[in-house]
Write a structure and sequence with these properties.
Number of domains of chain A: 2
Number of helices of chain A: 12
Distance between the termini of chain B: 11 Å
Order of helices and strands of chain B: EHEHEEHEEEHE
CATH architecture of the domain at 11-70 and 94-152 in chain B: 3-Layer(aba) Sandwich
CATH class of the largest domain in chain A: Alpha Beta
Number of strands of chain A: 9
Strand content of chain A: 5-15%
Strand order of the largest sheet of chain A: 7-6-5-8-9
Shape of chain B: globular
Structural class of chain A: alpha/beta
CATH superfamily of the largest domain in chain A: Aspartate/ornithine carbamoyltransferase
CATH architecture of the largest domain in chain A: 3-Layer(aba) Sandwich
Strand content of chain B: 25-35%
Distance between the termini of chain A: 19 Å
Shape of chain A: globular
Largest interface: A-B, 24 and 20 residues
Largest sheet of chain B: 5 strands, parallel
Oligomer: heterodimer
Helix content of chain A: 40-55%
Number of helices of chain B: 4
CATH topology of the largest domain in chain A: Rossmann fold
Radius of gyration of chain B: 16 Å
Strand order of the largest sheet of chain B: 3-2-4-5-6
CATH topology of the domain at 11-70 and 94-152 in chain B: Rossmann fold
Number of strands of chain B: 8
Structural class of chain B: alpha/beta
């Protein structure tokens, strides 16, 4: 029997059973998204605040659609043009908004740990929509959901995360979640962008992309932030593409079919070639669709509990 | 939970299914344009049994679906435990069809209210009719069944439990008394 959850801060501390519960609940909502009327009355009367201290298109729209499809009332907050630019602290902003009798907070923040801080402060459930370089749990869940739909189960599946692992909250949420459900996880990228603490989580590191491709069933390709070039983590975008970019000739050298995933937005022709991103082994748009279903599941399990 | 009496056994239940199937056919003047949708969990097994019976009598196959009403419940936020969310599976268009909604026990009518909302979200049927296995009274909403397996007067603190071979391993309907502990 599902218990509901208070917060969703990260997959690192979420028990396996709760991850499975969210993924199972997500399937019910995936079905709702196929209906002519994609809206259910479940969260009527619940107010959800989307606090976004960082720019975002996909995640913000995905959360907002999920909230509206559950019939919640939605308030959007973007840091620019708000009292934050007048110097108000996160604590004051959040407490003021909660004082207006809102029920659930969705937070994206550039500082690691911001959602954990808010969850101690607020009575409302807090859903982490990405904090610093820590976690992006709903992305991790939707990636797992997408792989589960494709392969049936995650146990024994070989998933390789490619790119800037060091600064990626998507990578961390994927690693924590996938390991708990029994998948084999590896990472691949330039040495400068692979943290040295991964071994303790049982994560393999490849420094040669062709080796990674031979090993993997799924490549979860991360976005290379173009500003990292200037930071000196790799010499140039061109060199990155040459050594780590996923293209057709690389994939064809491996005889099996490899599923391609990407959390977006894609730098076409850098980490991933356009024909692969749009190819028939790509699940990138399924990820986006499943994102709404997974966020509905998380809101359902937290929001219902809150009121 | 204490069992007070057995309301029906497997044989009586089989007879009720046959009678319900006949009544549905009679009322709809055949089985054309008819479909059955069961409310999860036990309603969908009963719907399957009734549909099989109708197919047997009329020699046509009747479209069959199942409905999960969790997302439409009006008490979902008052419960301490969340009901398990299952999937609605209606793989045909219900618009312009005669839909027979099937559930095991009719009590307050709130489940049916939710089911009506859920149905209307997936199409616009010509009619929605209601078939229940047991009507135990105590309605809180203006809802009544078109086809009733058995009318069973009960006290509020009593409860009617339908066991089905598909999930419980046995066909029987029991009248039970709820425990006083929460």
């Amino acid at each position: 029997m599902p218990q509901g959850i208070k917060d969703l801060l990260g997959l690192r501390d979420l028990p396996k059973e709760e991850i499975v519960e969210i993924l199972d609940t997500g399937r019910s909502f995936r079905e709702v998204l196929e209906r002519p009327i994609k809206k259910v009355p479940t969260l009527q009367g619940t107010t959800v605040v989307n606090l976004f201290f960082e720019s975002s298109t996909r995640t913000r729209i995905s959360f907002e659609l999920a909230e509206r499809r559950l019939s919640a009332d939605v308030v959007n907050f973007a840091a620019s043009g708000s009292s934050v630019s007048k110097g108000e602290t996160l604590k004051d902003t959040a407490r003021n908004i909660e004082a207006m009798k809102t029920d659930v907070v969705v937070l994206r923040h550039p500082s690691t740990g911001a959602p954990h801080f808010l969850s101690r402060l607020l009575k409302s459930p807090v859903i982490n929509a990405g904090d610093g370089i820590n976690e992006h749990p709903t992305q991790g869940l939707l990636d797992m959901f997408t792989m589960r739909e494709k392969f049936g189960e995650l146990k024994g599946l070989h998933v390789c995360i490619v790119g800037d692992i060091q600064h990626s909250r998507v990578a961390r949420s994927n690693i924590f979640g996938l390991k708990k459900l029994g998948a084999e996880v590896a990472v691949c990228g330039p040495k400068t962008l692979i943290p040295n603490y991964l071994e303790q989580f049982g994560v393999k590191a490849f420094y040669d992309i062709d080796e990674a491709i031979r090993w993997a069933d799924v490549l979860n390709v991360l976005r290379i932030q173009l500003e990292r070039e200037a930071g000196g983590d790799f010499p140039s975008i061109r060199e990155y593409r040459l050594y780590w970019g996923i293209n057709r000739s690389r994939l064809e050298r491996s005889k099996k079919s490899i599923v391609i995933m990407h959390p977006g937005p894609i730098n076409r022709g850098v980490e991933l070639d356009a024909d692969i991103a749009d190819g028939n082994t790509s699940l990138i748009l399924d990820q986006v669709t499943n994102g709404v279903a997974i966020r509905m599941a998380v809101l359902f399990l937290t929001g219902v509990k809150s009121s | 939970m204490r069992v007070k009496s057995k309301i029906a056994d497997a044989q009586q239940m089989a007879r009720s299914i046959t009678r319900l199937a006949h009544e549905i056919i009679e009322h709809n003047k055949g089985a054309a344009n008819l479909c059955l949708i069961g409310i999860r969990t036990r309603g969908d097994f009963l719907a399957t049994r009734i549909a099989e019976k109708i197919s047997e009598i009329e020699r046509v196959s009747v479209p069959l679906g199942s409905l999960d009403i969790t997302l439409y419940r009006d008490d979902v936020r008052q419960k301490l435990k969340l009901p398990e969310l299952k999937r609605t599976e209606v793989h045909f268009d219900i618009t312009d069809k005669n839909v027979v909604l099937v559930d095991d026990v009719l009590f307050t009518g709130r489940t049916i209210r939710s089911a009506l909302d859920a149905l209307i979200d997936i199409g616009r049927p010509t009619t929605i009719q209601l078939a229940v296995f047991v009507d135990r009274g105590h309605r809180e909403l203006p809802i009544s069944a078109d086809y009733v397996g058995k009318n069973q007067p009960t006290a509020v603190k009593e409860s009617v439990v339908v066991h089905l071979a598909e999930v419980d391993g046995i066909d029987e309907i029991l009248l039970v008394e709820e425990d006083n502990e929460p």
